[in-house]
Amino acid sequence: MVSPTLPRKREWTLPQMKILLDVGCGPFPLDGYIGLDPVVRAKWENKNRQDRKMVTRFPLLPPKSGSGFIVSRDQLELMTFPTIITGSMTQMPIASGVVDHICCSHALEHLDKHEVPRALAEFYRVLAPGGSFMIEVPDLVAICELYAKHVKENKPDARDWPMDTIFGNQDDAGQYHKTGFTPRILRNMLETTGFKDVRLKCDVISHSQPCIVAEGVK
User: Fold this and answer.
1) Burial code of 167-195, b = ≥16 C-beta within 10 A, e = fewer?
2) Which of 106, 102, 140 lies closest to 121 in space, CA to CA?
3) pLDDT digits over 31-54, tens only?
4) How far is residue 37's CA from residue 57's CA, in Å, rounded to a whole number?
5) d(CA 36, CA 26)
6) pLDDT at residue 5 in the model
7) What CATH number does the domain located at 20-138+174-217 have?
8) Most C-beta atoms within 10 A of its C-beta, which of 50, 69, 192, 203?
9) How far apart are CA 41 and CA 59, in angstroms?
10) Which class for 57: exposed (0-12), middle (13-18), buried (19 or more C-beta within 10 A)?
């Protein structure tokens, strides 16, 4: 029995909190993830009051180039859930090497094609050594085949969802698809960025469309 008057020595090390980042999260980041999205304020204000979810936005404005606020590892660990950092995935207001895992689901296709390498370079920069990622994007070849099938079969919805999977639903400025990915294109971009152990899953159905899922580590 340990005397209550003596200080107890801790015999274990508390695990370090894992920093999980949901890039391009929209108004609602994944559970347990800190979100990052460039237009969350606009999306948030457009939602009906009864549908709103309490989200802490930090910082409220994206940083100015060269002099903006940079979020440190300590600050990330103190954030409560859900929190969304307002910022671009091509210039994240996050310190280098502080994130343990990045999830980026159906966001890269909303960038211009020349912005994608910049975004992947940012993923690499903010990830800690050994940090991992999961990226999900529409499979351009598969969704084009799906659209062609609807047209060939003269289905009336050909200009609706099948076309939206290629070009985005275009409900607002953030819902346009500006580029596309095949397994070869995505793998080459990830490996050129420097990521290792890149693994791809194809023929994955997500968001009601065929997708590519890529995983790997820094």
Assistant:
1) ebeeeeebeebebbbeeebbbebbeebeb
2) 102
3) 899 999 987 554 444 444 444 444
4) 10
5) 8
6) 41
7) 3.40.50.150
8) 69
9) 11
10) middle
